[in-house]
Amino acid sequence: MLVSSIKGYFEGRNIILLTGVLADKEYEEMYSLIAPLAKHIVVTKPNSSRGLSAEKLAETIKKSNKNITTESDIKKAYIKALNLTEKDDVLVCAGSLYLIGEIKKTCLGGY
């Protein structure tokens, strides 16, 4: 669903992906599909005991995209992703709902 949405809505635009996932999910297949779409990927760890480390996820993603930055702190990861985003680029935050909730709370003021 996310892959088709990115292709449908943002075709021709650079994608910066901010992501993190839980270790008990089938993340290898997911990232083999989405990672090639991104210009750069910022990897972090969701605030959950089940969160996969940023370093381990980065190793998986490197099979499909070498342009990766890791940052264990979610707020710092969000700032890094914003700094990588240029005019007309799209910042996509995807992965664990724990990650998205933390981005909403700490980076977007709860919106």
TrEMBL record:
SUPFAM superfamilies xrefs: MurD-like peptide ligases, peptide-binding domain
Signal peptide residue numbers: none
Gene Ontology terms for molecular function: acid-amino acid ligase activity
InterPro entries, per the entry: Mur_ligase_C (IPR004101), Mur_ligase_C_dom_sf (IPR036615)
Pfam families given in the database record: Mur_ligase_C (PF02875)
Gene3D superfamilies for this protein: Mur ligase, C-terminal domain
Residue stretches making up the Mur ligase C-terminal domain: 2-96
Record's protein name: Mur ligase C-terminal domain-containing protein
